[in-house]
Structures are given as C-alpha cells and as structure tokens.
Design a protein that fits this description.
- With 154 residues, this protein is mainly α.
- It has two domains: 1-30; 31-152, Skp domain (Protein Binding, DinI Protein, Chain A, 2-Layer Sandwich), CATH 3.30.910.20.
- It contains five helices and three strands; from the N terminus they run H-E-H-H-H-E-E-H.
- It has helices spanning 2-29, 39-45, 47-76, 80-126, 146-152, and strands at 34-37, 131-134, 143-144.
- A three-stranded parallel beta sheet has the order 2-1-3.
C-alpha cells in the first residue's frame, strides 16, 4: 500500500516537473516586444489635422459673417411679425450650417484617427511588436516609435 502511494507521488511529481519544464520552454520562446507612441505628438504634427483645423476655422469665420449679416437684416426689419419670421428663418439656417460643420469635422477627424491607428498597427506588425501603448500610460520601458509614425503620417 505504501509502495503504491509512493508510485502515485513519484508519478505526480514527475508530471509536475515535466509540466513546469514545458511551461518554461514555451515561455522562453515568447518574446514580448512593446512599443510606445505619443499619439498627441503624432496628431499635432499631422498635416491632415492642421489642414482640417484651418478648414474648420475658415468655416467658423464664414458662420460668424452669416450671423452678422442675419443680425443686420433682422434689425432693418420694422414689422414685428416679419422680424420674428426672419429671426426664425436665420436661426434654422444657422443651426443647419453649424451642424453641417460639426458633422463634417467629426467625420474627417474620425477618418484621420483611423488612418493614424492603421499606420501604427502596420508599423508595429512590420517591426514585430506584440503590443503598442500610448506613451502617457507607460511609466517605464517600451521602444518609442513616435518619430517613425510621424514620418509616415502626413
């Protein structure tokens, strides 16, 4: 009976040792390469983002000009009923223009974000990185690939 218990113990110990050896071997073959990217820096240096912001500023200036013209036209109107109708008309136009500007900006910004993310993923795969993290969340370590991404992102 004691011999059989020793056999099971030896068998269990052997399985444990073999399992640990296989686990250590498997872990030694896995190399986790981690990269970090300063996404804000990439976005700030992007010509696409700069052009988008300039376009939005121009559209907002046009919108401000529209508001000024609308105010002038409303103030010229003496009839209270016509004045109210004119205010309503201009408010509807203003809201439609503002919403169109915001929607256009959001769509273009989303596309730029997708493009930057795709570029980061492509560069990471090409350099065999298993993970890319935002530089702001990493306290230590990781290869900084921000400059490489900035060269590609236009």
């Amino acid at each position: 009976m004691m011999k059989q218990g020793m056999k099971y113990f030896a068998l269990g110990l052997s399985a444990f040792i073999i399992g640990m050896s296989v686990n250590n071997f498997a872990m030694s073959d896995v190399t986790n390469r981690i990269a970090v990217v300063d996404v804000q820096k990439v976005v700030a240096s992007s010509a696409q983002v700069k052009a988008l912001k300039a376009d939005r500023e121009a559209k907002l200036k046009d919108l401000a000009s529209f508001v000024q013209t609308a105010r002038t036209n409303v103030n010229k109107e003496k009839d209270a009923t016509k004045k109210k109708a004119l205010e309503d008309k201009y408010n509807k136009e203003l809201n439609a223009k503002r919403n169109a500007i915001q929607k256009d900006y959001t769509n273009k910004l989303t596309n730029i974000d997708k493009s930057i993310s795709a570029t980061i993923a492509q560069k990471a795969k090409a350099a065999n990185y298993s993970m890319v993290l935002a530089k702001g969340v990493v306290l230590y370590g990781g290869d900084d690939i921000t400059a490489e991404i900035q060269k590609v992102v236009k």
